[in-house]
Design goal:
By secondary structure, this protein is α+β, with helices and mostly antiparallel strands. The protein has helices at 15-19, 21-40, 57-89, 125-129, 140-153, 178-191, 209-217, 222-230, 235-248, 254-266, 271-284, 288-303, 308-311, 323-342, 347-360, 367-379, 384-397, 404-410, 424-427, 435-445, 532-545; strands at 2-5, 48-50, 53-55, 96-101, 105-110, 116-122, 162-169, 201-206, 450-459, 462-470, 476-482, 488-494. The relative contact order is 0.05.
Amino acid sequence: MSNKREQVRQPGLPANLYIFLPDFLSLLQTLTLVTVKILLQPFSSYFIVKDERKIHYEEVMTVLSKRLKLIIPVFALLLLLVAALPLFGSPPAAFAHITLEVNPGLVLSVDSESMITGVEFKEGAAQELFAGMDFIGMSLDQALTQIAGHLKEAGFLNPEDVVLLAVHPAEGIPLEEMTVVSERLEQLVENHPDLLQLAGRVETVILDPALYNAARKAGLWPSDYVVLVAHGAVAETITTLISIMDSAGISGQHYNIFEAYMDLRAAGLSEADALEVINQASAITSNATNIYEIASDFVDMQEVGIAFTDAIKMFQLGQNIDQNIFTEEFSTLTSDLIDMHEEGISIEVALEALRMAVAADHSLEEVSTIISAFIDLKEYGIADAAALELVRQAIAADPSLETFEILKQEGVTDEDLPDEDMPAEANVSGSAVNAQQASTIALGAVPDGTVVEVSSGFERGIATWELLILKPDGSGVEIYIDAATGKILKQENVPAADMQDEDMPAGTKPAENKYDDSLYVDYDNYEYEYDKVDKVDRDDKNNNRGGSKRSNEHDDE
C-alpha cells in the first residue's frame, strides 16, 4: 500500500491576535461577571449565613467580584489556548492532491495557493529516496524541482520513461476546479525545460475522487488504471471493474482484467456487455489470466459473427460442471461452437449439440469428438434433428464413449451394418421414407427415367435408399436418398455402356461394376478415400484459426 507521512506546517499565532488580546480578556471578564450576576439574581432575597452572620446579596457579589478578577484572566487564557489548538495541530485545508509516479510515487497535497500541505509516499523506493526531505511549506514549483532532481540522480528519469501527474480534488472541492491545478502543472513543465522533462513524456490526468479512493482501497495507484482513462473508460466503469476484482479476490493481476475489458470494447462489445463477460468469467475463476483468455474467446466469437446474446449462453454450459475443468476447456468449447457456426449450423442447434456433448462427458475430454461427429453428419446433408438424434443414439449405445471414435466415422458399429441377405425393406425398417416414396423422390430428380433397381444400405453410416434410374438414351443415374429425411445425398451419372446386364433387356441392364469402388467402405480400416481431401481442408482451416481442439484421428488410422 503506502507509507504515509503527513508533513504539517507549524504556524505561530497571527500577530494581530496579540494586539487585541488585552481587550479580549477585559471583555471576557465583564461577560463572566454579568453571567454570574444573572445566575444569582433569583436568590437575591435570601441571605447566606456564615459564622452566625447574615451576609446580604450585595456583599456576596463584592467578594465574588474580587475573586473573579483573579480567576477570569486565567480562565480566559485557558479558553484561548483551547481555541488555538487547531492552529497548532491541523494543516491548512487541502485543495487538491497530486499523485506523481515514475517508478517511485508520492502524493502531494496542495492548498488553493499551490503550497504543499502534506506528503504521502508510495511503498517502495519513494520512501527511501525522499527520506529526510521536508516539502511542507514549499511551493509546488519548488517541490517538483527538488523531486525531479532526486529522480534524475537515482536514475529514474530516462528518455523512455513516462511521468504521470494525476490530480484529484480534496474532500468538498468540486472536480471542475481541478482544471486549474492541471493547467498549473502543465505550465510548470512547459516553463521549466529541466523540470520533469528529463523523462520521455509527462502526462497529466484529472481523476474522479470516488475512483481514486476505490482504487487506493484495492491497492491500485493511478498508473495502474490510467490506461483505461486514456481509452475513454468513465470512472463508474473503472470502479465497477475494481469492484469485480475485489469480489473475486483478484489481486496483483489487475492489468489482465483491464486489458481484457479494452479488447472486448475494441471488438465491438458495448460497455455493459464487456463488463458482463468479465463479471461472469470472474464467477467461475479468480485467476486474472484465465479471465483474459475467456475474454479473448468472446472476441473470437464476435469476429466470426456470433451475436453476444448467443455467445454469453456459453457460460450456461458449465452449470453442472467442475468450474476448474470448465474454465480450462472454455476455449475448446468456444472453438467447437465456432466450427459449427462456420459450417453453417445455426447457433441454436450448435448450442444444443454442445449441451448434449457436455451432458454426456462432464470431463469435457470427448466433447470435441462428439461435436466432430455431429459436424460430419451435417456435412453429409443430414437435417439438424436427425443428426442430433443419431449422435444421441451413438452416445446411448456407448455412454463411456470408449468406441465413439468408430461411431464418429460410421454412425454405427459393425453389428449395425446392413445384412446383404436381408430384403431392402428390412434394412431400413422404421424409416420415415419407404422404397416407394424413395422411388417417387428419385423420379422427381430424373422425370424421364425409369426405376430399374432399389436397394437399401448405409452411406457413410447413414441409412439410405440406393436407386438406379434408366434414362431414355440408355444411360443411367444412381441416386442415394436419406431414409430418414428423404433428402438426396448423392447423384451420379452411369454411361449407357455400363448399363448392360444379362438379367436385363438390352439397354436396360446395369453393369456389374456400375458402382465406383471408391464409394465402398473398408470396414476393417474405417477409411473413406474420397473423404480425405475434404477432411484435410477442414482440419487445415481449424489449425490456421488456432484454438480448435477437435479430434480428427479418423483421417489416418
